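Format notes (please read before filing issues)

Several people have asked whether sequences and C-alpha cells are stored in separate files. They are not. Every record keeps both together, in the order shown below: the sequence lines, then the C-alpha cell lines. Line labels are part of the format and must not be stripped during preprocessing.
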Amino acid sequence: MIVARLTAGLLLLVSPAFAQEAPPPAAQIAGAVVAAPEDRRAGAKVLGWDAAGKMVTLREGSNDQVCLADNPAVAGFNVACYHKDLDAFMARGRELTAQGITDDKQRDSIRWKEVDDKKLPLPREGRMLAITTGKSFDAATGTIEDSYSRWVIYVPYATGESTGLGTKNVPGMPWLMDGGTAGAHIMISPLRPKQ
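Then the structure lines:
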C-alpha cells in the first residue's frame, strides 16, 4: 500500500471501540505537536480523544497549525499536523470514515469529486501535512521510540510537468502522487535510519 494512503487511513481512523484509555489531554497535546514545525507548536490547535474514543478539541489554536493526537486504539505512535486551510478536507475524510467508508481510494475519490464540484474547499497553493510515527511516545521526556517523520504538500491539480517532479516513488526522493487530481500532493519521505 502506498505510504500516503496508509497514513491518511490512520489519520482518519475514528474507533468506536477504544482499546486503551486515552492519555490525559496534556500528554496527548505534547505528543500531537511534535509533528508541527517547532516555531508553531505552542499555538497549534490540537484534536485528541476523550474517554469514549470520540475525537474532541483538546486545545484551541492561535496559528495556522491543526494537530491530531495519537489514537490510543491503534498500535504504535502516529501523529500529524497540517495547515488549517486543509481542515475541511481532513475533517471530511474523518466524516467519511465514521460513515464506514474505510477504503482509502474510495474516500479519496469522494473528496476529490467534491473539490472538483466546488463543494469542498481545498486551497490551490501548497499546504503541508506532517506525520511523525514511532513505536511509542513518552510525554514526560518528549521522546519517541523509533521516530520517523515525513511530509506531504498538497498541490491540487499539479502534474509532473508543472512541478518538475517525478511521479514514481523513488526511496528518499520527493515525488508527485495523484498528479492532475484534486488530491495531487508532493511526498517527501526520507530514508529511514538503519537500525
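For reference, the curators noted about this record: The beta strands are 45-49, 55-59, 65-68, 77-83, 127-134, 136-138, 143-145, 148-154, 175-177, 185-188. The first helix runs from residue 3 to 12.
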